[in-house]
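In response to reviewer comment 3 from the previous cycle, which asked for concrete evidence that the modeling workflow produces usable outputs, we include below a single protein chain processed end to end. The sequence was submitted unchanged, and the resulting structure tokens are shown without manual editing.
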Amino acid sequence: MTLLAALQGHVATFQTADRLCVGFSGGADSHALLHALVTLSRSERLPAIEAIHINHGLQVDADHWAEHCAQVAAGLKVGFTVESVQVDTQASPESQARVARYRAFEKHLGAGDVLLLAHHRDDQAETILFRLIRGAGPRGLAGMPETRALGAATLLRPLLAVTRQDIERYVVQHDLEVIDDTSNANIDIDRNFLRHEVLPLIESRWPGYRAGFTRSSAVLAQISKSPSLLHPSQVSAVGDPSLDLQTLDAAVLHDQIYHWLHGLDLQLPPHTTIAEFARQCLEADPDKQPELRHRHFVMQRWRQSIQIYPLKPSGSFCAEAVVGHSVQGDWGSLDWVQAPFGLDAGAVVSLRTPKPGEELKLRGRPRRSLNQCLQENEVPPYWRGSIPVICQGDSVVAVAGLGITQESSDKSVSCKEGLVPVWIAPKLCFVN
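The workflow returned the following structure tokens.
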């Protein structure tokens, strides 16, 4: 299938968008997509087109590539945005780069925007085979979805019916100057090994394997969307998704967890991993908190439910804040609401993590440990080390979500009809 034909099939979607954004690395795939979309705009009424380039900083030529992409966008007369991200190269840099990339995309997208990514039929085959090797279930083996939500925007992969050969032909035909990332030839990377060593061997024996993969992925996508066991999903006191434990059967709980994660649009752990976690949730002692960590989230049994959280950074934090002004960090975000008794707007305070064994006296309540106060407010143990404690000097004047302390009554920051802090937990990261 030609690129223009593939894009033509999505014109109705394009025309209802406020803006069409292309994830533009400068490589052959994204350059061909951007060029074809601009070509289509000359014959069809389309909204504004913008190229978004994510600079991961992982290659020595990364800044040069960003400049090249800016020049290409200028030549095509489309908008251009570049975003630099930090990637942890110590642990799974490819996975970390992917997460950083999607977060950066989401940062620049709003409601009504459509983000176009240049994943094609060969990428889909690699994804399905890679997930099969890792023991994925029906949803994982359905491959990358053609479209899904990305924050307030929509993500669309319009080239999933197009092959790599089709794209290479388009690049040559239009004499496109594309970036050649030499790391793509490194077969020490699993996906590159599949691309350069395994799939060519499969193609030599079964030339039509891509069509077979596509048919199977479509069937599995349909299966994964079929009505599943009802699961009592709700939201915890701090806004995290939670799943009530209402079964004594590990197999039933396994299916509930599987479809729950599916509904949350999270990457699924292997079936065997979910099964073991389900067994632990049902068999572990009441005072234990079995957990399952997978990629960018963690599930943990707490009380009679399973909570799911984004993986939080370890370590303490300390920051300065102004009462009434929002503050954000890896630990979440802090905002302020009006209350009968609160802190003076504009007062300068500091934020820190709770101290082990810390005790305090909240206004109108007896003195007790902070951990006990958080427990009474149904804050899961996972987050208790991330709740911002608000101080003035050495005195604790408030705790986010709990209110002001009795000690703050003796401080100038305390007043009637003041502001109290509210903590918002970091959100889950959705990547596919």
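The radius of gyration is 25 Å. We consider this sufficient to address the reviewer's concern, and the full set will be provided in the supplementary archive.
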